[in-house]
Amino acid sequence: MSDLENLIRDIRRARMYTKDILSHIDLTDWFRQPDEGVTHVAWQVGHLAATQYALTLKRLRGEKADDAEMISPELRRLFGKGSRPVPDPGSYPTPKDLRAVFDRVHEQVLDESSDWSKELLDEATSDPPHPMFKTKGGAIRWSVQHEFIHIGQIGLLRRLLGATPLW
């Protein structure tokens, strides 16, 4: 597939994903502004760490025994797929600890990326299936796109907390 074909595929996939999300929102809620308690920056950062681990490291080479030193199973449970933010800071690691895990996972992904071959990236991913990708390379690409989704949410949170736009 050419770069242009890949870009067009990604444009279509992004719109497919957006339409899927929109299909689960009642039209009467389109202008509703949620109150406090929807999400917070700590959950967003923890979620990015947990999902980058799951989408790249775990999907590409499986779970390793020492992964728990990088990102604990408890943190993966707190922030992984299906988790929900709670407003109690006592339910979570500190921001400093979350940032450390966020950084460790990312550094590990970059360290292991030198081992990725075209053949590996073309391999089918293991279960569970995902609607946005079928291959290990697709899982990596989705990890990047997923991060952009959440940075948008973090940016909105900044604004709701009174910060001015960065750009």
Count of discrete alpha- or pi-helical segments spanning 4 or more residues = 7
Helix content: 55-70%
The backbone outline, from C-alpha atoms, is globular
Q: What fraction strand? A: under 5%
Q: Spans of 5+ residues with little confidence (pLDDT < 50)?
A: none
Alpha carbon gyration radius: 17 Å
Largest sheet: none
Structural class: mainly alpha
> Helix and strand string, N-terminal first?
HHHHHHH
Tally of DSSP β-strands: 0
Whole-number average pLDDT? 90
Could you tell me how far the N terminus lies from the C terminus, measured between alpha carbons in angstroms?
35 Å
Characteristics of this structure?
167 residues; mainly alpha; globular
Descriptive report:
Helix content is about 60%, strand content about 0%. It is mostly helical. It starts with a helix and ends in a 7-residue tail after the last helix.
